Amino acid sequence: MNDSLFAPDYKSEPYWWLAVPRPHIEDAAAPADCDVAIVGSGYTGLAAAIELARGGRRVVVFDAEEAGWGCSSRNGGQVSSSIKPSFDELKSRYGDDVALRIRREGLNALEWIEEFIRRERIDCDFRRVGRYHAAHHAAAFNAMVRQIENQPKGVEVECHVVPPSAQRCELGSDLYHGGIVYPAHASLHPARFHQGMLERAQQAGAAVIARCAVEAVARNRDGFQLRTARGDTQAREVIVATNGYTGVATPALRRRVIAIGSYIIATELLDQELTRRLIPNDRVVSDSRHVIFYFRLSEDRRRVLFGGRVAAGETNPDLSALPLHRQMTRVFPELASTRISRSWAGFIAYTFDALPHLGRDADGLHYCMGYCGSGVSLAPYFGTRLAQQILGKPEGRTALDGLRFATRPLYTGRPWFLPAAIACYRLRDRLKL
User: Cβ–Cβ contacts within 10 Å for residue 265, how many?
Assistant: First the structure.
């Protein structure tokens, strides 16, 4: 570690925990039985718990760590309408109608989360600041322009082109080659959002049991038996909502998601005149690389939060901090001597078809996961939809229902191929492919 670039109060934990430390929930034994057991207390699990508990079900949410310890309080707080595959990709797989409906789910999720936050009165600094998607080379910019000029009817999104000559209006950097602004995209404080969801779930009557890992889930004639660190629980229904932290208790699901670490740093406090020059409109920012970087200002506009992946394999946040700082300095040379106050990581879950998945397996086990880096809006949205399906509500239907949740031969949940894949994508970024 280069100590000169670490602030005196440096910690390798999420910046968001400064305002909202992980809640401490008193130890409790696993109940003998419940209607629905939920594995995972992130956005997905809590959204499902709120809906089910308000629907009259006895709900228990288990987490191996403190509630929300995973990526729900570790993400960058960027809220988008991201369904990763393009309309043309989806059309080639499923046809026009299904492709349109899948793409529309991303738009639905973005509208849903704003309404949910408003209705539930969750104070989480939600703002429609817009996203600036920056082109890392001229050919990428031209491809972006072609894409927005040919949006499929029915899933058009509001956006406008920022040519390279006007980039300084959006970004205090000359590294990129113009980009696209998506005004409807938003930002929020992830830990405040999670805390609000946790409180709503508990108020609805859901029990949340933290630091209680689910070690096994077995089907029986009355539903499922969960073996936990604090005893067994019999549940009529089980939802697995573990996303990038899916483990050995559910091996079939672990084989269907690829856990990928995403790393973020937060700077020390900066002068607001400087931050206004760097990101004039307070946008969230992403770039067109295959191995992307994403960044934004903190909710008080006093820090830059800069994220991405800087190692082929997983690494320690203390070690990823300096490579991230170098990348940040490439974008913003003015930050070369700015120190790092926080560095942290969280695991997202990619799927082999780059789509989220929710549904029920052959044994009747419910699952909802695989948001491919866009979980802030997609996770609570699809968690709610899955709960509505369990309650028999027609509004729970989604365009993803019934899609095959595929894996690959020889894959058991350890992504041994990830370093080679990242190296390949980095090479494509350098070669501008």
Answer: 29
